[in-house]
Design goal:
Blueprint: H1 6-23, H2 28-43, H3 47-64, H4 73-85, H5 89-105, H6 113-128, H7 131-149
């Protein structure tokens, strides 16, 4: 995987500043940009900073209430995946499970979040030795794949 160039990082960081200035630090669109910035930091192997921004995005969405519950999927999943990759499996599990539940809750045609979260859960459950749950998630992944191919 190619890591983003410094120019790309600078542009993304500037976008975060612009969104914050224009919308405020509690706006859901600002939270989406913060989540994206955290992804860039994660790609740069700057895990501590990425974790901070994922948590910030989650907090913004949670303060906004039920209207933005499905928007929580991305930062919850991303933070869970980051923690999982760092070996912080016990912390990752609840985040990954919550992301998957939210992704399924209001799933719309063409929305790949349920598939992505289920695939990550398969890896998580295998890592903790829960083959029953891993198999259940694999079955759901297959159902989602078949569903997406039939459209």
């Amino acid at each position: 995987t190619l890591l983003p160039t410094q120019e790309y990082l600078d542009v993304y960081q500037e976008a975060v500043k612009i969104f914050q200035a224009a919308l405020g630090a509690s706006h859901p669109r600002y939270a989406a940009v913060v989540n994206g910035w955290a992804c860039v930091l994660r790609d740069q192997k700057r895990s501590e900073e990425a974790e901070k921004y994922y948590r910030q995005a989650i907090a913004i969405y949670e303060r906004k209430g039920a209207q933005y519950q499905t928007d929580l999927v991305a930062p919850l999943h991303n933070l869970g995946a980051l923690l999982f990759e760092e070996g912080r499996v016990e912390e990752a599990g609840p985040l990954l499970e919550r992301a998957a539940q939210l992704a399924e809750k209001e799933r719309k045609p063409g929305d790949g979040r349920a598939l992505i979260t289920q695939r990550t859960l398969v890896r998580y459950y295998r890592a903790i030795g829960d083959q029953v749950q891993a198999t259940r998630c694999e079955k759901r992944v297959n159902e989602l794949l078949v569903e997406s191919m039939s459209k």
